[in-house]
Fold this sequence. Notes:
four-stranded mixed sheet; Uridine Diphospho-n-acetylenolpyruvylglucosamine Reductase, domain 3; alpha+beta; 27% helix
Amino acid sequence: xxxxxxxxxxxxxxxxxxxxxxxxxxxxxxxxxxxxxxxxxxxxxxxxxxxxxxxxxxxxxxxxxxxxxxxxxxxxxxxxxxxxxxxxxxxxxxxxxxxxxxxxxxxxxxxxxxxxxxxxxxxxxxxxxxxxxxxxxxxxxxxxxxxxxxxxxxxxxxxxxxxxxxxxxxxxxxxxxxxxxxxxxxxxxxxxxxxxxxxxxxxxxxxxxxxxxxxxxxxxxxxxxxxxxxxxxxxxxxxxxxxxxxxxxxxxxxxxxxxxxxxxxxxxxxxxxxxxxxxxxxxxxxxxxxxxxxxxxxxxxxxxxxxxxx
Length: 310
């Protein structure tokens, strides 16, 4: 790991306001509580600060953007380059005319659902069931309880690798199931969402039902992520996993949840390798029993432990 890289970049960027640190452990901020360090971790103060940072960052340095880290599995070798964490500086929500809600990338999805409910805007309550932030929501066309981002998005704002702002329409997002066709080099910083007039009490009751359903069916109090695998066309991933006999399956400290088979959990001493190995074991068994290839929905990033041993 390059010594003094953070200091060198700070010298290059005298007007930088955000916090830039080197060799920062990520396991404490990921939901799985596993993984190695970020070579550099940058907390931009706001959108302008991020644009400034990107405009002066050498193009040879890779970047990775994270939010609440609810669907990330960070491997033991950590992440080379710069990890950009969109947090408090990207937490603004604005209620606009015509039942629209504008939210910056660091806002938790649940907070957007609450803001819409408080404003009497229906149609966004399903966001209460998504354990991430708006940036990830935009990137992966996140959804829950029969609805997804593509059904409510009006437009999005992103920064390119050089810090230039770009406005994207819904069509520009090229949405598919849990996927956007937009370049990985773009960093989403804001989304504009369309709702409809609604009764506040009715919307809040819907959100309460979602909360209760999630707590009843998912291991929300465990060290876990979101859904591990995407639902194949015409199938439910959890059912395929259960039919393959994987409910409760363990590898080291990692386990397939007994409560919901499409969740992997860290029982306290799991490594990223344990979790990834368990996931691949589940995929193999599902393939053997059903002929279906499960696709990871959890994003696996960083350098595998095996490469550290070379």
